[in-house]
Each structure stands twice: as structure tokens, then as C-alpha cells.
Write the C-alpha cells for this entry.
Amino acid sequence: MKHRVKKQKFNFGKDSNKMLLKKLIINFLKVGYIETTLTKAKFLKSHLERIIYKGKNFNESNKNYLLKYLSNYKLVKKIFDEIAPSFSNFSGGYVRIIKKNLKSGDGSLIARLEWSHPIIKKEKNIANKDKKIKSNKKVNLNEENEKNNSTNKID
């Protein structure tokens, strides 16, 4: 009997299903939403919930668990630094599924998977960029002053 066993099978084979899941997760984490069939969205939602839950507290075992799924250190760092802290007050329901229309080719349902709450990005990076821009402007102004002074000396 299959009590409490929730397993979705796609007719692609075991390795292809793993790679499909991995690609869907990576694309979702990069962009923040994804449009796919309803069955793939439901399959992806349960795995994403697990990934975000693991990202809430940083330790070596959680980092290795995420690297197993993603094998991309930049995305793992993004989960720990940006995504998981914005869901620190919630115990679940990080992702929602919005049902859309039917596919014109085969009539399967299309669903949009997106974050249930907005992701708050760090403001430190923006402040550093502003400082760099301001310092570049100072350098440019100093160069212009030197050019003006050099032309004044010739006169």
C-alpha cells in the first residue's frame, strides 16, 4: 500500500527526472518565478519548501545538503544570505502556485510558481556601489581641474 508516499514520476527515467528537478530549481532561484505544467509545479514546490527550510540556519550539513541539490555555490550563498532571511518569520508556505490556462498543444494545465512573500535584498551592495560612483566623480572632477589649470598656465 502507498500510504503517505508522495512521489511524482515523469516518464523520462531516473537520471532525467533528477536533472529536470535540478534545472527547475536553479531557474526558479535565479529568476524568482517559473511557468511550467501543473504537475511539475507541484513536484517542484515540495522540494523548494525543503530547500528554503534548510537555508534558514547556516551550518555545514545544511550547506552540503543544498550543494547536493544545486551544485552551485553562488546559489547556495544566495539562499543563505538573501532568500532564507526574508522567510525567517514563516514556518512554511514559501512558494505559491497560481493556475493559469491550458497549453494549446496537448491541453495540459500551465501554472506559475512564485514566492509567496517578497524577497528583501541586501542594501550593503547598493551603498558600496554609490560610494564607488561618488569616488569616481571626484576623480573625474580632479582630472578636469588639472586640465583647466594646465590650460591656464599656457596662457
Notes: The mean pLDDT is 83. Helices lie at 14-31, 38-55, 60-70, 73-86, 124-154.
